[in-house]
Design brief:
Number of helices: 11
CATH superfamily of the largest domain: Jelly Rolls
CATH class of the largest domain: Mainly Beta
Radius of gyration: 20 Å
Number of domains: 2
Largest sheet: 6 strands, antiparallel
Structural class: alpha+beta
Strand content: 15-25%
Helix content: 40-55%
Order of helices and strands: HEEEEEEEEEHEHHHHHHHHH
Distance between the termini: 40 Å
CATH topology of the largest domain: Jelly Rolls
Length: 304
């Protein structure tokens, strides 16, 4: 079994062309924190890891990500996009630009140690994390930026080491509470995502919606596409995605909006029209309610 530092070195060595600048810190519980940066186009080959890995982007880039041989993201990556991989998962990525990120890596033993810190009696193998997401309220991004500052500026005193330890614990706790099947207390079913959906009809509907986000989609239209009643469709969404069809469509539009806002040559009005919002004002209201920032404020954050 490789150590967590050997695993991290293997990941760095798999990038195809240019070295990664990295600053690392290993916590008392066995978690490895890394601030990683590269200014070049990179590609990482697919393989299975012996550690849990969480990675949050600190600057805009462009990437295609495969998780367990399924593509989970392709295109622009805004600040705050994150991905998580459990021990035994396979991961492959191709970046179209340089990147900067914070990584948290835990071996199975370290994962078990951290679970015990949070009073979780489940075995490490029982914990599953969502594979990809976006930090919509800024809490993970703020925490990751503070970790970057602490890793790069810390002088190694006992107080600074204890502070980084506390940040690492907080980061893991946030992922456990909000983005795992441990969320809400008792061990529950794994997080829902399009990549996990097994219902063929729902996958067809997701593809249909993604290709028509600029149109006026109603729940009745979606039900008609699958030849279902509206109540049956609503139940299908509730079981597969944990939300109503309308809420899912709006979430999907916001996800696309975040990526499109990273494209500096597109106006906010153009993005609103492309995603089917009635006006740029309507788009701004929905986006602010979902993300806590207006589209203009979010775009400024991407370039900060």
């Amino acid at each position: 079994m490789r150590s967590i530092r050997q695993e991290a070195a293997l990941i760095d060595g798999m990038w195809s062309s240019h070295p990664i600048a990295a600053t690392s810190f290993e916590s008392a519980s066995g978690a490895l924190l890394r601030h990683c940066r590269s200014d070049d186009v990179e590609e990482i080959d697919g393989r299975r890891f012996d550690a849990m890995m969480f990675c949050l982007q600190l600057r805009p880039t462009s990437v295609t990500i495969w998780h367990n041989e399924r593509q989970v993201h392709a295109g622009p990556v805004p600040i705050g996009l994150w991905q998580a991989h459990a021990p035994g998962d396979s991961f492959r990525a191709a970046r179209g630009a340089g990147f900067e990120c914070i990584r948290l890596m835990l071996s199975n033993d370290a994962l078990a140690n951290n679970l015990r810190q949070f009073g979780c009696s489940a075995a490490a193998a029982q914990i599953e994390f969502a594979s990809v997401g976006h930090d919509s309220n800024g809490s993970l991004l703020a925490l990751s930026r503070e970790l970057r500052r602490a890793l790069l500026d810390g002088g190694g005193s006992a107080v600074e080491v204890a502070y980084i330890e506390s940040l690492a614990t907080t980061l893991f706790g946030h992922l456990l509470v909000h983005h795992s099947n441990r969320a809400g207390g008792a061990l529950s079913r794994p997080p829902r995502s399009a990549a996990r959906i097994e219902d063929r009809r729902l996958r067809q509907l997701i593809d249909y919606c993604d290709s028509r986000l600029g149109e006026s989609l109603s729940v009745a239209d979606l039900a008609a596409f699958l030849d279902l009643s509206v109540p049956h469709l609503t139940e299908l969404f509730r079981r597969g995605l944990g939300c109503s069809p309308y809420r899912w469509i709006m979430q999907r539009r916001i996800e696309h909006a975040r990526a499109m806002l990273a494209e500096r040559d597109r106006s906010i009005t153009d993005i609103a029209i492309a995603l089917g919002f009635a006006s740029s004002q309507h788009f701004a209201t929905v986006f602010r309610n979902a993300c806590g920032l207006t589209p203009s404020e979010y775009r400024k954050q991407l370039s900060s």
